[in-house]
């Protein structure tokens, strides 16, 4: 029997756990140069011309002051081989950039190594919504790494898609 949803918060959480999402990491720097980043499953394309993307974040996030005060971020699209990287960038913030899994990239921003794709985005809008924000970026540059299976987040677990469905 399906669980009975009794309130709006339960309905939201239970439904979105069943919605598979791609996994991305957004990186920036604080004004003093400290690298910051976070795992995001809210990345979406907004338009192709001009090339615009959006991501959402909590304004109480430790990375928010950097995103609020900078002009650019790097968005990294993760693949199956980056699962440990996804865990690291969603773990304790003081451990996210310990190690050699990144290097300074365009504009000195943290560029994660060995990802299938990355994009440099100029922030064009920060829209506050409750305690969160929708951040709109215009893509200015990017690069491709080695292709990989998609990394998905579904039912609070990282996974890869199965074989294609046939009609």
TrEMBL record:
Record-linked InterPro entries: Flavin_Rdtase-like_dom, NADH-dep_flavin_reductase, Split_barrel_FMN-bd
Keywords assigned: Oxidoreductase
GO biological processes: pyrimidine nucleobase catabolic process
Flavin reductase like domain location: 16-160
Signal peptide: none
Superkingdom, natural source: Bacteria
Pfam families with a match to the protein in the record: Flavin_Reduct
SMART domains per the UniProt record, alphabetical: Flavin_Reduct
One term of GO molecular function: FMN binding
Protein name (record): Flavin-dependent reductase
Taxonomic source organism: Pseudolysinimonas yzui
